[in-house]
Design brief:
380 residues; alpha/beta; Rossmann fold; five-stranded parallel beta sheet; 18 helices; transmembrane helix; Pipe
Length: 380
């Protein structure tokens, strides 16, 4: 039997372990450390871990002695090794700069020599699929010869459930309120309807009064479109309030807006299945994590992005997007508590992945800072 490498061995051993408790779910850093050591002992993962030098061991112990944070090893956060096939699946969340990332991936495919594939433009984008359609999706994605990438707006899909090899899952998230504002003006942009009419000539034009309605008026007037009520469900890509849906999956329990169950399911899937979930507001950290944890596909991503910034910065800029006051944003945030919690969870995980590398050249933003946000002020 072929011997698994260290990272793969650990991930396979822990596949059957309950891992839905992340560090912040424990009462203290010490409790988290003890639980982590128990997992290692019970699975034999301690014997599979890479050997470290004395200097690395001492540095690791110093990190673990910190009272407020426990920093795992990179192999403990590396889900790339769980993949059964050298195939990157980007089930892109809309309005998170995903077209920018898609263009970056297309150029990296040429540089790093892997296949680039995406689904065709749909008249109606279906993101939550019935089991039979999930199976078709898994078949289509895995039909591409590796190494390859595939991009589609769709909920997280468990390929192994249908007997297909598991790909390398990646995605990106965005501040939930900024994301719904982005969507609000995206579907009202004139060029959006020009593109849609060109692709589907029989589509009806929207009501001019609806097109002219601004987001602040929509919120302050209590308009049905901008109320964002907890527990509501809405099928289709037209409802962008539920970022968690793209990670929770296709099950009915994932559809209610701002629900506890959807939040917990989404967190668990990210922890157990996704190699990296990037954060739009922190591009440097996102691209660096992509490079370090998925080098086969993302080597050179950071350099390519910044060297060709003008090109990427023009993708999907929306000059029809109006400014929204912080007061109105705060009103909306009050209804997005669990969506915001999920976003912060993904941001925390991203930064933890980079801290785990223990590379002194990596400088992470503080909790009050975000990087490159200005690049997306006018983006959809």
């Amino acid at each position: 039997m072929e011997r698994l490498n260290d990272v793969t061995a650990f991930n396979h051993l822990t596949d059957k372990i309950q891992t839905d408790r992340s560090e912040h779910a424990y009462a203290s850093a010490q409790e988290y450390k003890e639980a982590l050591e128990a997992i290692r002992r019970n699975t034999g993962a301690e014997r599979s871990r890479p050997q470290r030098t004395l200097e690395e061991t001492n540095r690791s112990e110093e990190d673990l002695d910190a009272p407020d944070e426990v920093i795992p090893e990179p192999w403990e956060l590396n889900n790339t090794a769980r993949a059964d096939i050298e195939l990157l699946f980007f089930n892109r969340v809309p309005k998170v700069g995903s077209q920018t990332f898609m263009e970056l991936l297309r150029r990296l495919a040429i540089k790093n020599q892997f296949g680039f594939h995406r689904d065709s433009v749909q008249r109606v984008e279906t993101i939550r699929l019935a089991p039979a359609n999930q199976q078709v999706l898994a078949s289509v994605v895995t039909s591409h010869a590796p190494p390859a990438s595939y991009i589609k707006h769709v909920c997280y899909t468990n390929f192994t459930r249908f007997g297909y090899p598991s790909p390398i899952y990646v995605n990106v998230v965005r501040d939930p309120v900024e994301r719904v504002i982005s969507w609000y003006y995206y579907v009202r942009a004139p060029w959006y309807y020009v593109e849609r009419k060109q692709a589907f000539p029989d589509l009806p034009l929207p009501d001019p009064a609806w097109l002219k309605k601004d987001f602040e008026t929509c919120v302050l007037s209590g308009d049905r479109e901008c109320r964002y009520l907890e527990g509501e469900t809405h099928e289709g890509i037209g409802d962008h309030r539920r970022q968690t849906l793209f990670f929770c999956g296709h099950e009915p329990q994932c559809t209610p807006f701002n629900s506890v169950e959807a939040l917990q399911r989404a967190k668990r899937v990210v922890e157990q299945q996704y190699a990296v979930v990037g954060v739009l507001e922190d591009l440097n950290s996102t691209l660096l994590a992509f490079e370090r944890y998925i080098p086969r596909f993302f080597t050179g991503a950071l350099k390519m992005y910044w060297e060709e910034l003008n090109t990427f910065n023009r993708i999907n800029r929306n000059h029809f997007k109006l400014p929204v006051s912080e007061a109105v944003k705060q009103i909306v945030r009050a209804n997005f508590t669990r969506e915001i919690e999920f976003y912060e969870f993904c941001k925390q995980r991203l930064h933890l992945q980079l801290k785990a590398l223990r590379d002194p050249s990596i400088i992470l933003p503080t909790h009050k800072q975000t990087q490159s946000t200005h690049l997306y002020n006018n983006m959809v």
